[in-house]
Every structure is written in structure tokens, then in C-alpha cells.
Amino acid sequence: MADRYANFANSGLGRTVVKRLGLPDPPRLRRFKAGDPLVSGPVLLGAAPGGRLAEPVRKLLEAAGAEIKDQTGEGVRVSALVFDATGIGDSDGLRALFDFFHPYARALEASGRVIVLGSPPETTASPSEAIAQRSLEGLTRSIGKEFGRGVTAQLVYVAPGGEAAAESTLRFLLSGRSAYVSGQVIRVGAGAAPTPSDWDRPLDGRLALVTGAARGIGAAIARVLARDGAEVIALDVPAAGDALAGVANETRGRALQLDLTAADAPERLAGYLAAGPHGGVDILVHNAGITRDKTIARMDSSRWDQVIGVNLTAPERVNGLLLERDLIPSGGRIVGVASIAGIAGNRGQTNYATSKAGVIGLVQAYAPVLAERGVTINAVAPGFIETAMTAKMPIGLREAGRRLNSMSQGGLPVDVAETIAWLASPGSATVTGNVVRVCGQSLLGA
Ligand code: NAD
């Protein structure tokens, strides 16, 4: 469903009306296009004294072709403000944040990027350092709400020893791939990560399975993973067979018709993967999902069972069997698709929110276990994304979903897909146990 309001607000007449009446002003977001440079202009890099990340980050950005500035003069525009806050050891030291962001806030161009780098509070040497590092969340989330014009702001906690492995995350957050991701706290763990030989095709040689891939977000995931080099198996129910075949053709992949709620679905899937040329699967994306909305007082038990069955029990059973049969090798990636409803709850969605909170639980329960196998597990939590699912919403709710976020607009399926591709990358080897919202910093559950 087209966002007519956003189209109007970006027209000549619309811009005037929106400004005069103080209406929501959805900017055109800078989304990634093949061949785009990492950033469209210089990156301003600042650091609190004693920070351990500024130098590795400077080298990494320079190697990626970015122009780095340590300061700018009046009227100079930059495409990103990156601040290493790891040197901040107590609350007095937080003043370094003001000293950097106050003068440079206006230097950031539309769809610019703010990245604050911190140390995970639990890895710090003292309570005062832990408190100061925890404070960074408030700054970052507020900047996301203040700057507008499609600017995104994130806090990246990099564990000591994880400096080099932060590259894939920084590249994602700086680029147009993260257009609809803002106000997030992302954790990069300690350890090494392989550097892809081609950052435009980091998934070369990898086999990915995407569930619910016949349409909507799942089809976008299949396309983006294929664009990034993966061979894709697109899975969906037999009733969606024609659309599924279309996606498989377009991505030069394979189509697999399977109802994930069938009793023998995990067994059939495991057999299919074991018999394939890879003898398993490298990237597993649990995207298939349904809604059956009613308040709990009006809901019949079948609506409850169907939603829990597709959204939570199916991924849990599939993971269980594929891991038991060793069909996800070291270097493997599992990504779940949760929802902001699973974080904030939502009226009329007790079944759905329960299932999606369960997807977050799945990530948290499995991350430590899978780390021992060299496999990561993360989830994305989309907010309002323009798909067939949200086109069915009543108009009032749909408009609220679109506007009540820092971008004043809904996201696109590709925004969720790009986030999943980053998590699936070999370079994201130390990113595990994260739940990353793709919601334009929605006010729901913020
Ligand atoms: P969609 O309804 O357009 O697509 C979902 C796909 O899953 C369909 O092709 C469907 O056939 C498939 N599917 C359903 N049951 C299945 C089963 N038993 N076995 C195999 N495939 C099955 O939905 P979408 O909007 O693209 O959503 C994709 C995912 O994103 C879902 O998990 C959804 O909960 C989540 N999500 C969507 C939004 C949004 O705004 N659209 C927001 C938050 C989360």
C-alpha cells in the first residue's frame, strides 16, 4: 500500500503545507544502491581521551575509502559523526559527549549517521566506568529523536578484543543499508572475524534458507541475500507455490514447498538439506510468520495455536533438529524475525506478541550454546513495514504505525532484509545474542 501522505509531503506544494501546519515530515531516506560508496561525504571522528577504538576505527574507515576529519569549520557538511566514548570512566567524563555533539550537530547532512562507540558496561573495570558507559544509551537514543531528516543514531558496545571484528557492523551502520534502523544498542563481542574478500558479495559460497519467502519481507530477504552472493533456498507453503517459484527464479535459487507446522516438517527439511550439495545450511532465516488478531477475551483457541505454532514452535523445532543432526556448520548464522510487538506488547495481539517475545527468548537461550559451535543467533524486530500484513490494518492504526517513529514513515521490506544480511555476513562472527529493531526508532516499546 503506497504511503500517499509521504509522497505528498515530499512534493513541492506538500513541503510548504507540512511546514506551515507543523505536520509530520517524512524525509526521503538514503537507501543503498549497488555501486554506492560507503559514505557520501567526510566522516567526523572524535574521541574522549584514552579511548581504545578511535585509532582502529580510523584505519578501518580509511581502508574503506572514507575521508576522515578530526574537526570541521563553519558551514562544512559531514555524512557521519563517529565518537569513541570508551575513554569515559566516570560521569564527569560524559562532558566529552556534549563537547563533541554540541558544536557539530548542525554539520550532519540529511540521512547522516551518528555512531557512538562504547565498552559493554559488564566488561568495565569499575562501577563508575560501568555507569558512564551505560549512560551512552540515553544520549544516542535522544539524538535519534532530535536530529530528524533521516539521520540515524546507534550505540555500538565493542568488547575489548573485538575491535577488528566491528568492521562489518560499522560498514552496515554507516551505509544506506541501515536506513530504517535507529536508536539501537548493538553488541560486538570479543574475537576475530574473517574479512570478506569482496564487501559487496560477503555471502559468496554460502547457502541460505529463508522461510516465508514467497512474498513481503521474506521475498526481500531472499533477493538481498542473493545479491550479496548467497545461494538461496526459498521456502513457503504449497499454496504460495507460484509466487515462490517466481522468487526462486529471480534469485536463481531453489524453491521448497513446505508447511512448517506439519508434524514431519523439521524431518523433511533436515533430509532435504542433508541430501543437498552443501550437506547442510550456512544461513537460516526464520521469517515465516502470521497474525490472527483479536483481544484475548474474544480469541478462540485456534487463533492462539496457529500463531504460536508458525511463529515460535516451528523455528524452535527446526533449529533443534538441524543442530542435533549437525546441519549448521561452524560459521553458521541463524536469524529470527521478531517484532516490536514482542517487546512492547500490542492490543489485540496477545498471541502474536507472545510468539515474538518467544523468538527473542530463543535468541537469548541459544546464543551462549551456539557460540561454542562457532554459530551466531540474532533476531531483527521490525516495526511498521509496508507489506500485505500491514496493508490489512485499519486505517487509523496504519497511519499511527507509519508516523509514530523518528522517520515519520513505515519501513520497506528491504530495510529488514539488509539488516539480516549484515547479521548473516561472515564478518559478523562476533555479533550474537542481539535483537536489532528495524523500526525507524518507533515510539512503541522504545
Ligand atoms: P507476509 O504475510 O506478507 O508473509 C509471510 C509469509 O510466510 C507468507 O508468504 C506465508 O505464506 C508464509 N508462511 C505462513 N505460514 C507458513 C507456514 N506454516 N509454513 C511456511 N510458510 C508460511 O508477512 P510479512 O509482513 O512479510 O512478515 C514477515 C515476517 O515479519 C513475519 O514473521 C512477521 O511476523 C514479521 N513482521 C512483520 C511486520 C510488518 O510490519 N509487516 C512487522 C513486524 C514483524
Automatic annotation (TrEMBL):
Coiled coil: none annotated. InterPro entries: KR_dom (IPR057326), NAD(P)-bd_dom_sf (IPR036291), Sc_DH/Rdtase_CS (IPR020904), SDR_fam (IPR002347). Pfam families: adh_short_C2. Transmembrane segments: none annotated. Residues 206-383 form the Ketoreductase domain. One of its GO terms (molecular function) is oxidoreductase activity, acting on the CH-OH group of donors, NAD or NADP as acceptor. It comes from the Bacteria. Belongs to the short-chain dehydrogenases/reductases (SDR) family. This is 3-oxoacyl-[acyl-carrier protein] reductase.
